[in-house]
Amino acid sequence: MADVKLIDLKKSYGSVDIIKGVSLDIKHGEFVVFVGPSGCGKSTLLRMISGLEEISGGELHIDGKLVNEAQPREREIAMVFQSYAIFPHMTVRENIGFGLTIAGTPKAEKEQAVNEAARILQMEHLLDRKPGQLSGGQRQRVAIGRSIVRKPKVFLFDEPLSNLDAALRVDMRMEIGKLHKDLDATMIYVTHDQVEAMTLADKIVVLRAGEVMQVGSPLELYHNPANQFVAGFLGSPKMNFLEVDVKEAADGRVTVASPALEPVSIPHAVGRYAAGGRAILGVRPQFLHPGEFADRGHLHGRVSLVERLGTETVLNVDLTAGGRIVAALDGDHAFDLGHELLLGFEPERAHLFPPG
Ligand code: ADP
Ligand code: MG
Fold first, then answer.
1. Based on the structure, what is the number of domains in the chain?
2. Is the CB of residue 264 less than 8 Å from the CB of residue 256?
3. Which of 176, 205, 255, 331 has the fewest CB atoms inside 10 Å of its own CB, making it the most exposed?
4. Is residue 348 part of a domain?
């Protein structure tokens, strides 16, 4: 197992820059998740680490060694993809041992490694089956087993759960988390699923168009997003954003207002906000509550959609002053469409971002 260090890593295809200088320190045993919208370069970055994709600029170090030019197998990395790529004519045992077979590993050693992987993945009873007799989750486990037996320094996963149905995805997610603990392995995991990112990661790297937007623990990113992109990407339903005018900015508070919002004073570093300027106010749906709020920010509107999920009630509210916001209330609540209400938020829960 090993540290992985990226220094200003770049990738371009012809004149198109895909990865625009990514620097990262990944410690031995860390579980790092790359997350970002489709096409932002997650797979490309992972493939650059694996050696499947050439590096255009910068440095990649694995276990203290510069490996820009190293062949994939010299990097001692295992990669698990969304498509399992296991052989249908081979048994589970043969599939898991395949890498060791071609490496010419002695039979007894190979058997031991396969049995150990099967034990970790709880598939000992399936070793003699063919992939056709397995569920999707079991097939994915075979692919993971194949990477475990090679005792790689680093595991790379590229959306390994995307082909599975929702229930199985939750099970496999927990299994991968457990695998990480059992193996004490460095893992780099790509997903566009923010729940996978939040639950699995020690450290999340949010990417956008080939650039790192923020690196941090899941809750750091959730509570202190560095910018509007990260704020909007993590959390469900998505954070609400309202354009507001800055009325006053002094002493660690910024007072903002808009036609939809009475002036409210937000605790926030004054930074580049100044009276007369503009800002984006961000409030998560979970921090909006119906009721009267003389001392809080509040917004007036009418309910235009109600989603009753049992544990949560999601309201779409058309603001009287224009625009729409989403509120997520704890528990089950009935609302008529068109119901008029005030939604309040505590200023401490609000975020401010520079205008787009
Ligand atoms: P993600 O995994 O985040 O969805 P990818 O890493 O697959 O994104 O792709 C990032 C960008 O690189 C995309 O815009 C994609 O079109 C582009 N890209 C990927 N492979 C190639 C290639 N071989 N040639 C040109 N562009 C590519
Ligand atoms: Mg991808």
1. 2
2. yes
3. 331
4. yes
Residue nearest to atom 26 of ligand 1 (CA): 13
Q: Whose Cα sits closest to atom 15 in ligand 1?
A: 39
Cα 43 to ligand 1 centroid, rounded to whole Å: 7
**What does the pLDDT average to over 319-339?**
96
Residue of 299, 292, 296 whose CA lies nearest to 315: 299
Ligand nearest to the CA of 45: 1
Domain-ending residue, one of 227, 261, 280: 227
79 and 209 housed in the same domain: yes
CA dihedral 228, 229, 232, 234 (to 10 degrees): -120
For 6-34, what is the mean pLDDT?
Answer: 97
With a 6 Å cutoff on the Cβ, whether 13 touches ligand 1 is yes
* 43 plus 138 within the same structural domain: yes
Tens-digit pLDDT profile for residues 123-174? 999 999 999 999 888 898 899 999 889 889 999 999 988 888 888 888 889 9
Pocket probe for ligand 1: among 10, 13, 15, 18, the residue whose CB has the most ligand atoms within 8 Å is 18
Cα gap 83→67, rounded to integer Å? 27
Task: Give yes or no: residues 187 and 298 share one domain.
Answer: no
Ligand 2 center–CA 149 separation, angstroms: 25
User: Looking at residue 168, which CATH number applies to its domain?
Assistant: 3.40.50.300
Ligand 1, atom 14: closest residue by C-alpha: 39
The neighbouring-strand residues paired with 298 are: 344
Give the CATH number, domain containing residue 289.
2.40.50.140
Q: Which domain holds residue 202?
A: 4-227
Confidence band, pLDDT 50/70/90 cuts, at residue 347: very high
Residues, CB within 5 angstroms of ligand 2 (ion): 43
Q: Is the shortest distance between the CB of 313 and ligand 1 below 6 Å?
A: no
Does the Cβ of 106 fall within 6 Å of ligand 1?
Answer: no
How does DSSP assign 28-80, residue by residue? TT-EEEEE-STTSSHHHHHHHHHTSS---EEEEEETTEE-TT--GGGGTEEEE
Q: Given 227, 259, 288, which residue is the final one in a domain? A: 227
Quick check: 228 and 201 in contact, CB under 8 A? Answer: no
Residue located nearest, by CA, to atom 25 of ligand 1 = 13
Query: Per the domain annotation, does 71 fall within a domain?
Result: yes
